[in-house]
Known about the structure:
The protein is α/β, with parallel strands linked by helices.
Amino acid sequence: MYNSKISGLGFYVPDNVVTNEDLSKIMDTSDEWIQERTGIKQRHWIKEGSNETSATMGARAAEIAIERAGLDKDDIDFIIFATLSPDFYFPGCGVQIQEMLEMRTIGALDIRNQCSGFVYALSTGDQFIKTGMYKNILVIGSEYHSNGLDKTTRGRGVSVIFGDGAGACVLSRTEDNQKGILSSHLHSEGKYADKLIVESPSIKHWVPEILNSKEEDLSYFPYMDGTFVFKNAVVRFSEVIMEALSVNKIGPDDIDLFIPHQANLRISQFIQQKFKLRDDQVYNNITNYGNTTAASIVIALTEAWEKGKVKEDDIVLLAAFGSGFTWGSVLLRW
Length: 334
Ligand code: COA
């Protein structure tokens, strides 16, 4: 069996920065409320009228990751694209990447696991590499949230949290079984699907039905029971981190860098305190990007790597929780 290691990383966010102050001009909110509850100061939102989408941002991030891996697009054997905001209902964004980057007719898979999407995608890629089926897999997480948010006071509990952006990595085969992904752990609990959901349009509730319904049909905006999500997130994050530590027979002190999904800085801080991690063991960047869902971990990992915070042989722990509910972790030796 082979191992898979991350050989290249890249991220891309749209230029347009939206501060909390900007939001307070279009809805009843404040910089103070948003920072106190979430730690977010600003996010990047695609400008209205721009041609950017989840697929185009993913393609930009992917090009950087492939170049940094020292590879050519023709070296990539498979594409995995994680998003909850695909350009189309179908087909998925993966095939758009194959076309946009003018790649060979390799396979492309979309992952629909929301905030856990990147962890699920990484774990899926790892299985293909372990079995020897593929050598280099492009793994992308990308989200275009801003076009789907309720940017009025009615939607403020959700819309202030989310940002647009994309990150990508190349997962490559290594014969060194001490390096790369050491374990991954995936979970779900569908009974809470309705706690964080965009219900429509769906086959159950299609466009004509929405158009004919009364104005109070808000099913096409994201709904989140924030308090319930928060409480479940801290429990599941802790469990899945414990699982990774115990399977690999290591303790919190052995973690060189922990990158939690950037859901809310308060969730990350809670986890940091629970595992008694020092500040230099944790990387957060939600302050500048908001929650970019499937892109958040890979954007943070890329930024941490660019800043020299990820070094050879470091133990890196990634963990995520989100809509589904789904949650998971990946432990790597760099
Ligand atoms: N600005 C100002 N006030 C706001 C607001 C905003 N953006 N959003 C909500 N409020 C108000 C509410 O209307 C409510 O007012 P009321 O007390 O008069 O009814 C009050 O603030 C408290 O709202 P509540 O939703 O209880 O706040 P909270 O402390 O639970 O914080 C979240 C809200 C969303 C920040 C928090 O629940 C959270 O982070 N949850 C997890 C989110 C998450 O991780 N999501 C992604 C999963 S991957």
